[in-house]
Amino acid sequence: MRLSPRPINLWRRLALRREVWRLEGALKALERERGTLPEEGANLVAAVLRRDLHELKGRLSAEPGRAPPYGARGRFEDACCS
User: Organism's domain of life (predicted)?
Assistant: First the structure.
């Protein structure tokens, strides 16, 4: 008998969505303030926010029991930040 993978808990999924919304808001605020921040620091912060946002969205969209796409940081950085 094959057991089905356990789905993400509803409360955990809600917490992940709230974190996605928070990161999207932070990224939008950073884009609005880009002219007043040092270029190098703003680019670094934006890259980190995008990476975290991508990982969270991958975790939310992954099928239960499967690893999300680009779940490992190294693969994400190689694909998006080179």
Answer: Bacteria
Domains identified in the chain, total number: 1
**Residue 2: inside a domain, yes or no?**
no
Residues 52 and 30: beta-carbon distance below 8 Å: no
The boundaries of the domain holding residue 35 are 10-80
DSSP characters over 22-46: HHHHHHHHHHHTGGGS-HHHHHHHH
Structure tokens at 32: 């609005």
pLDDT in tens, 17-56: 899 899 999 999 988 888 888 888 888 889 999 999 988 8
Q: Is the distance from CB of 31 to CB of 45 less than 8 angstroms? A: no
pTM score of the predicted model: 0.59
